[in-house]
Records
---
Amino acid sequence: MKRIIIICGPTGIGKTTFAISVARRFNGEIIGADSMQIYKHMNIGTAKPDPEELKQARHHLISFLDPKDDFDAGLYVKAADKSIEDITTRGKIPIITGGTGLYIRALLHGLFRSEPICEKTLSQLSRDLEEVGSLSLYQKLEKCDPKAAQKIHPNDSFRVIRALEVYQTTGQRISDRQKNHDFDDLRYHSLKIGLYMDREKLYDRINKRVDVMLNQGLLNEVTTLVENGYSFDLKSMQSIGYKHMAMFMNNEVDWADAVRLLKRDTRRYAKRQFTWFRKDKEITWLMHSQFDLAEKLIKEFLT
């Protein structure tokens, strides 16, 4: 079983910088696990690694997909598997880095389906998870399949999505079919490192990062996307940052409200990410300054 290192945590915590340090120290290459950094032409709003950071360590699964194309956890696993095989074949260490918990969990445990995957449905549910959170999806499940909802924790987004996908795709309740799967199959041997900091400090960091994005030209980036034929109706354009610029451009809110809502929604997204990752008891939580401890853990893991 191949060994991989995972660097995860909420948006704005500094995963890229930390992962680059790990890659440089342990002859590794970084595989993105971010559902927005996969898209071409969407750089500022997704906080992609800048050119200097890309020079310091090779990155995979970043800027490879057209914003018009759909993507989901199943497709991510296939792409990540190829990158891991390539990296390990060349004698290097794969470092999975990102904040999309569903991608990371699917990579480690696989995606089980008793029916063929409906790419459109799964992609929409995955997007809904990021935009509105697990509680909203759970409430939908309570209405369409209350028996399944009783057996699934509201924060277990993986199983909630599976149950909703089965119902929306087949019209059948997953509880009626009594086919359960615990997603316990392990696909890789992993060391999981989660980055954290005081919540108020993180929120302040997020607010400042939004200001930096705006100063870098987020509005111009979105304007250029629209001019090049990328509609606001696209799922990629409905993500945090891009939808807020769309609201301003469509005169739905003024600039001050657009900025305020962007900061608020980014903070809320970070909170949902923390909730997701906190469920994983295998994650070792470190502050950004604890690289020495991370180095020790990685040495032991690779030995």
---
Amino acid sequence: MSKDWKTRTKLVHEGIRRSQYGEVSEAIFLTQGFVYDSAEQAAQRFEKAGDDEFIYARYGNPTVRMFEERIAALEGAEDAFATASGMAAVNAALTSMLRAGDHVVSARALFGSCLYILEEVLTRYGVEVTFVDGTDLDQWRAAVRPGTKAVFLESMSNPTLEVIDLPAVAEIAHGVGAKVVVDNVFSTPVFSRALELGADVVVYSATKHIDGQGRALGGVVLGTREYIRKTLEPYLKHTGGAMSPFTAWLMLKGLETLDLRVRAQAAGALAIAGALEGHPKLGRVLYPGLASHPQHALAMRQLEKGGTVVAFEVQGGQDAAFRFLNALRIVVISNNLGDAKSIITHPTTTTHQRLTDDQRAALGITPGLVRLSVGIEDAEDLIADLMQALEQA
């Protein structure tokens, strides 16, 4: 396919594999295995499968491969491997490259399940993990050492929307030979340039903006062809975290409208953040697109937009936050994000519930903090809904 195509064209046409029937919409190949013309062909394919040859759905599938090629073209990656969920992608991206005795440095501000993998899973098998304040470059410099295998971070953190200086962290990591693994969900594939800015491996929960309509779980890991095929693929082939063909078809359909949806969501998020800032019933309003955000200038350099999520603190703590959430009429209460529908959650009691009070306090997750994922509804309607709910908080 053409590398000169713009984003929206890639999102509709990259990776297409048409059968002999010439279908317009991508075909769903619902099969777990494939038939060979001869025993010799089977033996040859197991020894070295070609680019358009498949063995078993856990290894690869034509529909899944279309999704992988399309998202790789969007991200500017050499290759990609699709997984059963976003957390399967995070786990595989890290575990496939690590072994007992290795050292990892990670930003402290992470989604709860990412923290679990780093704090519980990796350390259980002998990997040493050091946590730092991701926005403090001196802490990164002090934590890495010769032999550090990888650094891990969310390019925009969940839920307090800290933005990390990716080129600077990448320079520090590469100085000691470490790989940079980035969870890029909040930055979105539309606004991100993570590989260009120094990341070696990029991870997405496709459940979020890529599907964008609350239908299916999925994930994807992107990087060099050597990493994807020689490090990641063997791990996923044998541990079974592959994406289903039907899910891949849904993700392909989601990609077609991804750019349109995410840009509309980001525009809505900026309007909402501006309307909320300074409200007498709110404390902090966190949105990288606002000039008041601590990393606003950095966010504009790295992403150009502030993303699709706004976080804000309802004064009065958890009780007031719950009254606010329960009074909403359009915005729904759920723990997903990146959906066409606007979704709000209370991190202290949901996504970051397993953390201790001290851990949440260190991350700025207070009892009054709520996280709003802005959908594609009319921004004026959403603002009116938020304002009437605040009156009841």
---
Amino acid sequence: MDHIATHIPYLRRYARALTGSQSTGDAYATAVLEAMIASPDTIPEQSVARVALYRMFHTIWHSSGAPVSEAERGAAAKAQTHLAQLTANSREAVLLNALEEFGVADVAKIIGVDTEEAQELIRIGQSELAEAVRGAVLIIEDEPIIAMDIEGIVTDAGHRVFGVAQTHAEAVEIGTDGRPDLILADIHLADDSSGIDAVNDLLVAHGDLPVIFITAFPERLLTGERPEPAFLITKPFRPEQVLSAISQAMFFSSTETLK
């Protein structure tokens, strides 16, 4: 099972982004592992392990009605209402392609459609999620070139840049001069301060805000030992990954962060 274990943190990331809840996502990721343990013949070979793992997740998730977070009030309830209006499988397809970096052929295998349909679902999902929400994005990033790149991605998608900060202190100063709609934060900042601490201070000031973290070392955060960010982008990133994460985070207004 070692070749399966290496993919579990990323399956958990995907499951949480898909369901809008760490507990719901983890429950389905756990169900996948339990199914494999109960039927060892279902454990895939290493060469196809990642695709098979995600495909099994989808089979179990859809067999139970493809539920999302069960909260009935506030942002989660609003997200569920939006979800009901999306084209079937489009959100899954765009997440698998943009966030998890599966090629179109593998997306097709995972969700059980042909390649042409998978490509169309990705296109539809990108369009529907981008149109669902617009807002002001606070960027916390200490590398100027990367910050400029993110600014361009944000504005090209129709969002507004609330501000750009390079340190914990600067992030809190800028982020409390008004209220951003979303925070997009690097983990390690210019003065060795923590983007996680900056985000948590801003959440104390503002209450619920959707958050996306960017890091070159996602495995350090996806350990299962403490609360984790719903949306985590790995450096180096592609523009479509950032766009997908922004749309998803605003869509769910996810606020659970690392402590």
---
Amino acid sequence: MDKRTKAIHHGVRRSQYGEVSEAIFLTQGFVYDTAEQAEARFLQAGDDEFIYARYGNPTVRMFEDRMAALEGTEDAFATASGMAAVNGALTSMLKAGDHVVSARALFGSCLYILEEVLTRYGVEVTFVDGTDLDQWRSAIRPDTKAVFFETISNPALEVVDLKSVAELAHAVGALVVVDNVFATPVFSQAVEMGADVIVYSTTKHVDGQGRALGGVILGTQEFIRKTVEPYMKHTGGSMSPFTAWMMLKGLETIDLRVRAQAASAQAIATALTARDDLERVLYPGLATHPQNRIVAEQMHGSGGTVLSIDCGSKERTFAVLNALNYFTISNNLGDAKSIVTHPATTTHQRLPDDQKAALGITQGLIRISVGLEATDDLISDLTAALDAH
């Protein structure tokens, strides 16, 4: 079954009423015919048996099954947000004394978990340049438990060689955990490339319409049910049934949306490369991108839905942002609406200046999440704003 078909049909659980659209089971708990039945379910719930909404729910399970089918994993656990997924995946598997190697080019909240939360509880974290295989090779040790990175970094759009890093990690028995948001479930080949655990902020392309927070952790059934589920159900980071229903509705159109957005992003990036008033145009789909070859292997050749440009100074950048008509200034991405973000003062503002500089987050950098508007309108809007400033 093609991904586009799985995104519509996989994992459906219909009630006795035979509804077309998936049902929303808005309940915090479930009832039992007898005390003996309750006892048996608490001892060992079956595949389609539920106890409490924090543990699982029919609507949420439909979403988990569908996401696992799309990504090619055995199982999934849906979470309240993308950061709940990152935190849950890492914290559930690690303990004091464990060693993690991570790319340093990460979203600010991911850095907080690695730099502040995990180290607070005795986990040792080593940061490397994610694009430098020699640094990965030097940092991974025989006692390394996990490696973590964004397959495409936010916002400088560096692409990590997933297959090569996975080979290095697996050689010492370490798990490969990847934040795969920019690759999207549509273009992802993370499992084939060697990822063991994949996390998404489903707030982004899965919902795709700016309605709700959500996340998901994907992996083997043993990892999801024996490691992730006990941690998540007891710490309370699970997804709500109503959110799961919205995410299911988003999945029905994700293939069409993401492919259209990626095609527009490619066209916009290509058009902007002709300008000589930009410091940089960053897009993994451009032949000039340093990791373009890896993109061809890991994402079916697509560069994704996000590009970044560098306008030079903060003053010019703010003037350009304020002059745009069809782009919304916000901090989300993967939305049907095109969104522009100034990472240095928003999503990555807490980072020290030297760390921003090391990650390529300048005062002139704009992250552009391309939506579903007409490509020519978006190019015209950006061109007019840049020409005017």
